[in-house]
Specification:
The structure is a single chain. The protein has three domains: about 260 residues, no CATH class; about 160 residues, Response regulator (Rossmann fold), CATH 3.40.50; about 140 residues, Alpha-Beta Plaits. Helices cover about 45% and strands about 20% of the residues. Strands 1, 2, 3, 4, 5, 11, 13, 14, 15, 16, 17 and 18 form a twelve-stranded mixed sheet that branches. The protein is elongated, with a radius of gyration of 33 Å. The two termini are about 65 Å apart.
Length: about 625
């Protein structure tokens, strides 16, 4: 059986994450092990609810089923989430490895950012005469960003020129923040000699913002970055940067896991050397042939545009499939048919799983979707593994992937959340998709599908509300108890409880008023209405703590929970004691009431739906009716 490695991170650093995963998969080629990556796209500007909904994907796996946890810290630096993952891993008794940051007692893999940034500083100070530095940092709690900043400070201190660092500005890894600060600096006319940026993305954004303000790089000011991503290589000017060698870090992570598995003490670490790579943005044109890379990129533009066009068509098809649906059942069928008919972009191993209460929540605002973890039994909308469709309608989420083969070839599985704010809809699973991760296919796909589900759910919810308002709410006009429409909502709620908790306790009592037709025929419908009211009053008086529903004509139903459920036997005895002896001859006494009753409790071993409970209650009621009539 293959080993299983859980990886946790965000997808914004997709290029370096792809390099890291390539290093891991390459090092694992001699072993039998799968990588399960739990990925989201949370940002620092998200609302707390939105961030919770994104990062809820980290709660999906039961780490007792895994052999190792890897936290890719260059993408995930949320302290609370990291601590939670470490605690869960420790409880499961499996090793934890953090890339890019450190926690006491936790093994780590990192790159020597520190020395490489000192090399960068030495280059720009000695070769280019830089004396005024603005440092664009990430976040204050980012280990990588702070290490790079400390390297700048230490180099300047060691060389007696600490005053060269004139500003440190925290961008929270947001390009827009870098733009705002560059605009302020340019408007003040107080340009530094160099912007040293904590990653290449910030560096490229800084170059663009400077150009928009009439300043050119490197003629007027120098800029450096960090990470050596492809975009920075072909950018004009090519970004002077630091190569962290993420592929080597990925390979080192696997080697460290093997060492930990063989008894090496937790808390050990492995540092991978980095290297400073000069570029055009620091006025060094001779170190690499950026024009060759740009020409190659130009040749690939046509093919990339064609792929993008077909991909956008697929996203539009998803919208066109989901949004017009008038029911949840229609959505499930249409989306399944779309993916079954054409899944070229998704591949032969792709899965869409939804929360079991997603459909019910559309029709009842009282049914809330989970925000902490996922339900055990997920609803399978579409699932194919190695081209083989999954046959079931639901799936145990602890298994993570329907049709998973624990003995086959090594694979990389990527899990993405479907949610609105902190309400969990479900999750998507892609397989062997490093290229899709790198070109942001995964982000665009899961984001577009999530938005389509949002719009569909809100449209149907609004339509359902309007229909309910037109249906005179949920009251029976004669008896003033709940009507059948109200019961249908209650049934959905009960079904959601069955889906979520197999130990839920409730019982249904079905009532059928005896002799109503005889009263109507003999005394008229007004007398029949009075008789129905008398019967309804008896039912309500006995089952004081239970909602009563008039299901139509002479039929009523009670839902027993709490006190009435606990005392259901006494209640059934009481109602029979308080009703009149059965009679089928006129005239009937003025206070005559006769009702046939049948009760059934929910039994998790036999009942899958509320309808199963009602069926037994109906059968009991008909037996009671026959007994009262002496048949």
């Amino acid at each position: 059986m293959k080993k299983k490695i859980a990886v946790f991170t965000t997808g914004w650093c997709s290029e370096i994450l792809s390099q890291f995963l390539s290093g891991m998969t390459g090092e694992l080629h001699r072993d039998e092990a799968d990588i399960f990556m739990f990925l989201c796209y949370a940002t620092y500007t998200d609302s707390p609810a939105m961030s919770k909904g994104e990062m809820n994907i980290y709660n999906l796996p039961d780490l007792h089923d895994f052999d190792c946890t890897v936290i890719f810290g260059s993408g995930l630096d949320n302290r609370e989430q990291i601590d939670n993952i470490i605690d869960r891993s420790n409880e499961a008794g499996i090793p934890v490895i953090i890339q890019g940051s450190r926690r006491e007692g936790v093994s780590f893999v990192g790159s020597d950012n520190y020395q490489a940034v000192k090399d960068l500083c030495a280059h720009v100070v000695t070769e280019h005469g830089v004396k005024k530095i603005t440092f664009f940092a990430g976040t204050k709690d980012s280990h990588d960003s702070e290490l790079r900043l400390n390297a700048v400070r230490d180099y300047l201190k060691e060389n007696g020129c600490e005053e060269y660092l004139t500003e440190v500005y925290y961008t929270n890894w947001e390009n827009a923040a870098a733009t705002r600060r560059v605009n302020e600096i340019c408007n003040a006319g107080d340009l530094p000699d160099i912007f040293i940026c904590a990653n290449d993305g910030l560096a490229m954004e800084t170059c663009i913002s400077l150009s928009n303000n009439g300043y050119e790089v490197p003629q007027d000011v120098l800029v450096t970055g960090f990470d050596y991503i492809d975009g920075g290589k072909v950018f004009d000017p090519s970004i002077a940067t630091v190569d962290q060698c993420f592929d080597q870090m990925g390979a080192a992570t696997v080697k460290l896991w093997k060492a930990l598995s063989e008894g090496e003490k937790s808390g050990s670490g492995k540092m991978v050397p980095c290297r400073f790579i000069p570029g055009e943005s620091c006025n060094c044109y001779e170190f690499r042939n950026s024009d060759k890379l740009r020409r190659r990129m130009g040749r690939e533009t046509y093919a990339k545009r064609a792929r993008t066009t077909y991909f956008e068509r697929k996203l539009n098809l998803i919208d066109a499939t989901i949004l017009p649906c008038l029911t949840y059942l229609e959505l499930k069928e249409n989306l399944h048919n779309l993916l079954a008919g054409n899944h070229d972009y998704e591949g032969d191993s792709f899965h869409v799983l939804l929360e079991p209460n997603f459909g019910l929540s559309i029709y009842d605002s009282n049914i809330k979707l989970d925000s902490d973890g996922y339900s055990r039994n997920m609803e399978v909308i579409y699932s194919t593994e190695d081209g083989v469709p999954y046959k079931g309608e639901d799936f145990d989420s602890r298994g993570l992937v329907p049709g998973y083969d624990p003995e086959g070839e090594n694979h990389l599985y990527v899990f993405l959340p479907l949610h609105e704010s902190d309400s969990t809809y479900g999750y998507l699973v892609f397989r062997d998709c490093i290229e899709k991760l790198e070109n942001h296919f995964l982000f665009n796909y899961y984001n577009r599908m999530g938005l389509a589900f949002d719009k569909f759910r809100h449209a149907l919810t609004l339509d359902h509300i309007n229909k309910r308002l037109l249906d005179l709410m949920g009251r029976d006009p004669l008896t003033n108890v709940n009507n059948r429409m109200a019961y249908e909502d209650k049934e959905k709620y009960l079904q959601s409880q069955i889906n979520s908790d197999p130990n839920v306790k409730f019982a249904l009592v079905v009532f059928d008023v005896n002799n109503l037709k005889m009263v109507n025929d003999s005394l008229g419908h007004e007398a029949g209405d009075v008789y129905l009211l008398r019967a309804c009053h008896l039912i309500c008086d006995v089952f004081k703590h239970s909602p009563i529903y008039r299901m139509g004509g002479d039929e009523f139903l009670a839902v027993l929970t709490g006190e009435d459920y606990d005392n259901s036997g006494d209640k059934m005895k009481l109602i029979n004691e308080r009703m009149s002896p059965y009679s089928d001859t006129m005239p009937l006494p003025d206070d005559y009431v006769s009702v046939a009753c049948g009760i059934s409790e929910f039994d998790s071993t036999t009942d899958k739906t509320v309808a199963d409970v009602i069926k037994r209650a109906d059968e009991a009621m008909y037996k009671d009716k026959a007994a009262k009539k002496g048949l």
